[in-house]
Amino acid sequence: xxxxxxxxxxxxxxxxxxxxxxxxxxxRDYAQKEPPLLVALLKGSVPFLAELIKHIDLxxxxxxxxxxxxxxxxxxxxxxxxxxxDRPIKGAEILIVEDIVDTGRTLKTVRELLLSKGxxxxxxxxxxxxxxxxxxxxxxxxxxxxxxxxxxVGYGLDFNQKYRNLPYIGVLKEECYK
Length: 178
Ligand code: IMP
Description:
The protein has three helices and nine strands, in the order βαβαβββαββββ. By secondary structure, it is α/β, with parallel strands linked by helices.
């Protein structure tokens, strides 16, 4: 375990197992529909996307979006699109892939943006959910793990851009961010 990590909240084995279960559910849910276009939000969702797609056997495509919130560390809901999708999405069945839903503001805004561009449906899959922190109404259709209100790193999640490469979800020691 990394020296700055206090405890492991979700192990690599648990993440892989949960990705398998969610992949199988997506296979069933989209069996009679157009295969979804997975829209992964950079950078945190990359390790999760990489594991998840191994368990999806539909003819999916994936693309990336990079958005940032305008002010401060708390996301405001007003977002700036830093990297947009490479193709038009009119009529597409979209599945947004996210690392964690916290206040829900980012995802609510991105979902509305994609719907306004003509997507047929916009659903959300997230590796982690912190429902205690929610300030807007947003429910992900697929949730890997519901976690308590603690600051976590690893498996894509960062603190000052570090720790994204840890193969598990861990709670960062308080002295590292206070
Ligand atoms: P929100 O749901 O709009 O508040 O923002 C979600 C984003 O906040 C995520 O994509 C993460 O980048 C970041 N975030 C929220 N909680 C954590 C955490 O515990 N560790 C690392 N990043 C987090």
